[in-house]
Amino acid sequence: MITVHGFTMSGNCWKIATILRLTGQPFRWVEVDSNAGGTRTPAFLALNPNGKIPIAVLDDGAVLTESGAMLCHFAEGTPWLPPPGLARTRVLEWLFFEQYSHEPAIAVARNIITYLKQADQQAARLEQCRIAGERALGVMERRLAGHDWLTDSGPTIADIALIAYTQAADEGGFELARWPGVRAWVARVLALPGIEKLPAA
Amino acid sequence: MITVHGFTMSGNCWKIATILRLTGQPFRWVEVDSNAGGTRTPAFLALNPNGKIPIAVLDDGAVLTESGAMLCHFAEGTPWLPPPGLARTRVLEWLFFEQYSHEPAIAVARNIITYLKQADQQAARLEQCRIAGERALGVMERRLAGHDWLTDSGPTIADIALIAYTQAADEGGFELARWPGVRAWVARVLALPGIEKLPAA
Lengths: 201, 201
Fold this sequence. Notes:
2 copies of one chain form a homodimer.
Chain A: E1 2-6, H1 11-22, E2 27-31, H2 42-47, E3 55-57, E4 63-65, H3 67-75, H4 86-115, H5 123-144, H6 157-166, H7 180-190
Parallel strand pairs in A: 1-2
Antiparallel strand pairs in A: 1-3, 3-4
């Protein structure tokens, strides 16, 4: 059985539990609190030298890292990842957008405000997160104001990847009412059968 | 013919020119200086609402964004991207590692020091880049101390993605002599037929 090492409150880890549930792949879960040093222990670093969750350990002992790569791996051959060609490339564009332009702003703001409770001490960094996060939400709004899903292939791992932290954007100080297309899409994705919302703090 | 909009000094843009050359796909190049506001013009934002280079415009007018997704798109069906399964996932892991853990440290340090020439004004950010960049190079060293390539599939787009800024790490203040496996790999990748080194500043 697949073993996922992750932190329940992490959107990156939520992505992996979600795609495994949606594709009917059983897994067990090992809780790792990255804010409490759980990814910096020698035992964890032996599994992932980059010291980041989530990771997944397969039956043969192979360790998978990087939530975007893991989404692709577990969705391969299912409708959640279109076959190679432009349709797949559209999904990949959103996966890389999420990791470069969205998560480092919105997930980091959420962690500073809601988990570390350091909004005052990290005010300058939080302001950078606000600017970058608002830009990222604007890019999503431009697509979602006129479409149900992020790509033309129906719901895919692009939607799973982007909703991971967008569903909790309020915990990072982002008021989704300003991006009504994004807000409607969040409700649409969360209403899909088999999706369980990320727990609130 | 494919049209690439990119900045010659950008490693992210270099990746796209490189995979197109390696796979024999002709392209024309439109120079865009992102440090001079070239990605914030209305004309550019109409092509990529996220305001980032590189982008590629295909014959049918489709616009591709995100260097990692574009590498996969242009390498599909070639030895530079293994078929779906664990071998492909290993490549994707490195592509996401590059965009999340490597580029935001090493490319940003290079830009601050060598292009913006703001090492003093941005000393705090540069120190964050140094810490994160050294960690990323350490993760690469752990693999490359004992292997010729980043994955077991021979040279792939994982090597292209990671060398993009590693070949210019000295311009970001990183002395590759500290990571001898990485340094040997840089020479190995640059010696591949068809690879042209990123120009020095």
